[in-house]
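Input record, target 12 of the design panel.
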């Protein structure tokens, strides 16, 4: 794997707010494409795993999950890579204490069933039999669940830039529907509402989509105006439902 490719990835993580020593990438980065690129090279540079899990624990709500999944399928993502992503997402949820990636992890478990043997994250360590044995003996439940032996994983919040700086460097992230990748949040809203015919609160919907209640307000209002979503009442206890016609169309 070329050193230049790894260096570019580190520059992009620097732009995303993780303080690698490399200079920052000059343009705004797309989180989904950054994660996809990281999965291609993380076994060569395991420090990328720490960067990704730390970043996801704070900014994971910006990740357009369905778009990322499509990207990985087009790239021919391997079962092991899906397992590494699952480890990343579950670890980031453990760091932040929430469950924004619960559904994503369930999906990933179905995509990595062919990855059955536990392997170290670092490709360089695979031939180190005694080291791998120690990793396996002291592996945490998340590593054992995904068969990816990472060692002691902890968030590096000291390596993250303040939120304000991150969004100043990537202003498109403020809209969630960034980088011209389509209305990912709209698709997520319609998908989750189709699973809840009785309706759910805006707060619960925001949690399912992995965003804040404030962030989901504008997309919900747009879908209401388009006639795809119905809101019962105007109080905080009101519920959102998928309009029957929209359910058939989606």
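The sequence produced for target 12 reads:
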């Amino acid at each position: 794997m070329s050193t230049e490719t790894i260096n570019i990835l580190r520059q992009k993580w620097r732009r995303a707010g993780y303080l690698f020593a490399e200079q920052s990438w000059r343009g705004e980065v797309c989180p989904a494409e950054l994660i996809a690129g990281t999965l291609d090279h993380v076994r060569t540079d395991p420090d990328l795993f720490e960067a990704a899990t730390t970043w996801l624990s704070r900014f994971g709500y910006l990740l357009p999950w369905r778009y990322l999944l499509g990207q990985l399928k087009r790239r021919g993502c391997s079962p092991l890579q899906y397992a590494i992503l699952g480890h990343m997402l579950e670890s980031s949820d453990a760091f932040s204490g929430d469950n924004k990636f619960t559904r994503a992890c369930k999906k990933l478990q179905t995509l990595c069933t062919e990855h059955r043997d536990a392997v170290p994250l670092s490709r360089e360590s695979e031939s180190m039999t005694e080291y791998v044995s120690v990793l396996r003996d002291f592996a945490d439940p998340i590593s054992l669940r995904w068969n990816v032996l990472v060692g002691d994983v902890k968030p590096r919040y000291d390596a993250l830039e303040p939120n304000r700086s991150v969004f100043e460097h990537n202003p498109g992230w403020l809209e969630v529907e960034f980088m011209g990748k389509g209305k990912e949040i709209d698709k997520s809203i319609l998908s989750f509402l189709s699973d809840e015919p009785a309706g759910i609160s805006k707060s619960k919907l925001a949690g399912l989509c992995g965003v804040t209640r404030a962030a989901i307000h504008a997309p919900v209002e747009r879908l209401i105006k388009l006639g795809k979503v119905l809101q019962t009442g105007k109080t905080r206890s009101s519920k959102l439902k998928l309009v029957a016609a929209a359910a058939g169309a989606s």
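The chain has two domains: 3-164+168-174, 183-249.
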